[in-house]
Amino acid sequence: MLEAQRLWPYRPRLFAKAFRYQYVVSRQVEQIHSFARRTCGQWHIHSGKDLPACTLHDAQGRQFGVLLGIAVGPAGLLSGPQQHLPLDSTAADFWNHLEAFITDTAGRFAIIAESGGQARFYTDPVAMIGAVYDPLARRVAASPLLALDRPVVPNPKVDLDNVENHGGKISLFHTADKHVRRLNPNCYLDLRTFREHRFWPREDDSLDAPADPVEIYDRIYAQASFNIGAIAAAHPTALPVTGGQDSRLLMTFAKPHAGRIRHYFSHINNYATRRDAAIGGILCQRLNLRHEPLDKRDFSLPEAEVEKRRSIYHLTTGAPMPPPLEHLNGTANGLPENTVILRGHQTDLLRAVFVTRPQGLWDVINWQIRKLLIVPSNMFGPETAALFRDDFTAWQQSLNTPARSKAVDFLFLEVYYSSTIGAVFPGLWQHFYMSPFNSRKLIALSLSFADKHRVESVPVFDIIERFAPQLSDVPFDFEAPADLDALHGCEGSYGPMTRARRLAAIKRLTRALPDQASQTRPEEEQPAAAAGTA
Question: What is the mean pLDDT of residues 353-362?
Fold first, then answer.
């Protein structure tokens, strides 16, 4: 019996729901209520009742693996009972070709594959599918308590009181258990040895700045839009809309498939999110979409239900982490269960959110450990830095040449994200959260822009201006007035708030593609100042 089962205090039917998006990979058959089972060589893959799964076959029809989760490959969504990939599982270079395929694949997924006597486990670029392993029991799972068949051995580097009461993160590949490790998502796990090996980026990959940024914008837009269209065509899908940059990028990418997405919504938990929802409503108006504000004042949960959700979340994540607010105040109930919710994670690489120091300071360790929020920033000190210095150094030394050139971004991708959304997403059971931007191909394109431009959100503003000027006209949260009445009173006259940003983007786009300047947008969509009016 797995530890998650042993500790479960509720009915089995609720276990099936709580762990509906999780999985276990082991050498033995596990008896897990409601989980389906598939095999890959000598490995048994057990998956929750609502986690998509399919067997993978090569071009000759030979089964070589199992895919878990939602993934969009170069040719479209990987779905159905089985998928045939353009690979030869008996070829000497099979693993190279499989890894190239994985690099081009987006979503929230894991792949278990076997060929030539080797068995490997791969995940999406930040392991938002959830990926931890117990090297002693030879078991991989979405969360720690599914990896264990014994009680948790406390990890001396993890302060659970800090996690529960101060929002601290369990980072640098640690879990609450001393022996269970979180997988670096850009390494594969060798299932023979249970050792990690980096497969991306390859040593000869380049993350250099593009000669033509607009060509990269077009590639990013085409790929991200393709991914959203494939997902929304197959699953009931929702998109959160706010005043932020990542949300607006998703709306821009989703525009050709807007009718396929069933819900455009905003959670309202406080004044800041109420303001977000107001901007989100304006954005939806621009595209003639129905906006659903999910206001906490319209939802309520009995205290017993709140405590039950908190207790279940501690089991599904394997740590006493506080659940997201919308799952405690009931606003998450505003969407149908088992909806795929598209999130903007990895689009924030276009803003270089972790690049807050110059490259000359990237070998200085303490400030980078602080950014991982192992303890709140105001509680960080030399003791925390010293405790995790060896873990940080070991990770840093695992970076190859191209990864080192973007080391702080890889800290964000591999360490911060795997310990946050990689722990949180599998633990949330009402909806399936994922990013359609979560592909190594899109990440590499995003990282190719110069750090100084990303820090200023130049790619974000340019992409939105190029492909959705009607959304670019609406102020972002940092541009809009704090007062909601003032924001609504500005409808149709946002020019003073957005003009400088928009004109700068148009100038960059025109300079980059002078022969296509007229294609940047129709004349009537130019900002007011560009047309000579106030």
Answer: 90
pLDDT at position 491: 64
Per DSSP bridges, beta strands 53-57 and 82-84 are parallel
pLDDT on residue 89 = 98
Cα-based distances in Å from 265 to 182, 245, 331: 32, 16, 11
Q: Give yes or no for a contact between 466 and 214, defined as CB atoms under 8 angstroms apart.
A: yes
Cβ–Cβ under 8 Å, residues 198 and 187? yes
Q: Which amino acid is at 46?
A: H
For residue 172, report the phi and psi dihedrals to the nearest 5 degrees.
Answer: 50, 40
**Residues 425-440 pLDDT 10s:** 999 999 999 999 999 9
At the topology level, CATH places domain 3-198 in: Glutamine Phosphoribosylpyrophosphate, subunit 1, domain 1 (3.60.20)
Residue 252 CB partners (closer than 8 Å, separation 6+): 221, 463, 464, 467, 468, 471
With cut-offs at 50, 70 and 90, classify the pLDDT of residue 531: very low
Long-range interactions of 269-275: CB distance < 8 A, separation 24+? 269/296, 269/325, 269/326, 269/329, 269/331, 273/242, 274/484, 275/243, 275/477, 275/480, 275/482, 275/484, 275/487
The domain segmentation of the chain, as residue ranges, is 3-198, 213-347+425-513
CA 369 – CA 490 distance, rounded (Å): 43
Q: Which residues of 216-227 are buried (b: 16+ CB within 10 A; e: fewer)?
A: bbeebbebbbbb
Architecture of the domain defined by 213-347+425-513:
3-Layer(aba) Sandwich (3.40)
Q: What is the pLDDT of residues 192-204, one digit of tens each?
A: 999 999 999 999 9
The Cα–Cα gap between 464 and 245 comes to: 9
Burial class (CB in 10 A: 0-12, 13-18, 19+), 13: exposed
C-alpha 195: how far from chain center:
24
Tokens representing 364? 């200085």
Mean residue pLDDT across the chain: 94
